C-alpha cells in the first residue's frame, strides 16, 4: 500500500516538484540578495522580503521533511517485519515477510524531477546552492 502510494505521488508530481524547487532556488538567491543589498527604499520592504524568504524556506523544508518521513516509514516497515515473531508463522507468511524485508532495502522515494530525492539532504543542498548563487550576485554587485 505504502509503496504504491509513493509511486503514484511520484508519477503525478515529479515535474511539479522540479519547477517548484527551481523557482524556490531562484527566489532564495534573489530575495537574500535584495534583503542584504541595501537597495530597498523602506524598512517595510526589507521586512516583507525577509518574511517571503523565510516562508519559502519553510515551504521547501516541509516538502523535504514529508519525503524524508515517507522513506523512514518504509524502512521501519522492514524493521517491524524483521522483529515480528516470524519464526512461529507458516512458510507462506515467512516468504511474504522475507519479500517485505528484501523490498524495503531499496526504498521508493519521491523525487524532484527524477534528479534528487525529496528529503532533508536535498533541502540542505538547495540551501547551499542558493547561498552560493547569492554570494556570486554579491560579488558581481561589489565589482561594479
UniProtKB/TrEMBL annotation:
<protein>
    <submittedName>
        <fullName>Olfactory receptor OR16</fullName>
    </submittedName>
</protein>
<keyword id="KW-0472">Membrane</keyword>
<dbReference type="GO" id="GO:0005549">
    <property type="term" value="F:odorant binding"/>
</dbReference>
<dbReference type="InterPro" id="IPR004117">
    <property type="entry name" value="7tm6_olfct_rcpt"/>
</dbReference>
<keyword id="KW-0552">Olfaction</keyword>
<feature type="transmembrane region" description="Helical">
    <location>
        <begin position="12"/>
        <end position="33"/>
    </location>
</feature>
<keyword id="KW-0812">Transmembrane</keyword>
<dbReference type="GO" id="GO:0004984">
    <property type="term" value="F:olfactory receptor activity"/>
</dbReference>
<keyword id="KW-0807">Transducer</keyword>
<dbReference type="GO" id="GO:0007165">
    <property type="term" value="P:signal transduction"/>
</dbReference>
<keyword id="KW-0675">Receptor</keyword>
<keyword id="KW-1133">Transmembrane helix</keyword>
<dbReference type="GO" id="GO:0005886">
    <property type="term" value="C:plasma membrane"/>
</dbReference>
<dbReference type="Pfam" id="PF02949">
    <property type="entry name" value="7tm_6"/>
</dbReference>
<keyword id="KW-0716">Sensory transduction</keyword>
Amino acid at each position: 500500500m505504502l509503496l504504491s502510494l509513493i509511486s503514484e505521488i511520484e508519477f503525478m508530481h515529479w515535474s511539479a516538484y522540479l519547477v517548484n524547487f527551481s523557482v524556490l532556488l531562484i527566489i532564495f538567491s534573489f530575495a537574500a540578495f535584495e534583503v542584504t543589498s541595501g537597495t530597498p527604499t523602506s524598512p517595510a520592504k526589507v521586512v516583507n522580503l525577509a518574511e517571503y524568504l523565510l516562508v519559502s524556506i519553510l515551504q521547501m523544508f516541509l516538502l523535504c521533511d514529508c519525503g524524508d518521513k515517507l522513506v523512514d516509514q518504509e524502512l521501519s516497515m522492514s524493521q517491524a517485519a524483521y522483529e515480528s515473531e516470524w519464526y512461529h508463522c507458516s512458510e507462506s507468511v515467512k516468504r511474504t515477510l522475507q519479500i517485505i524485508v528484501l523490498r524495503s532495502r531499496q526504498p521508493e522515494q519521491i523525487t524532484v524531477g527524477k534528479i534528487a530525492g525529496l528529503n532533508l539532504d536535498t533541502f540542505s543542498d538547495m540551501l547551499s546552492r542558493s547561498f552560493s548563487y547569492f554570494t556570486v550576485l554579491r560579488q558581481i554587485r561589489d565589482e561594479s
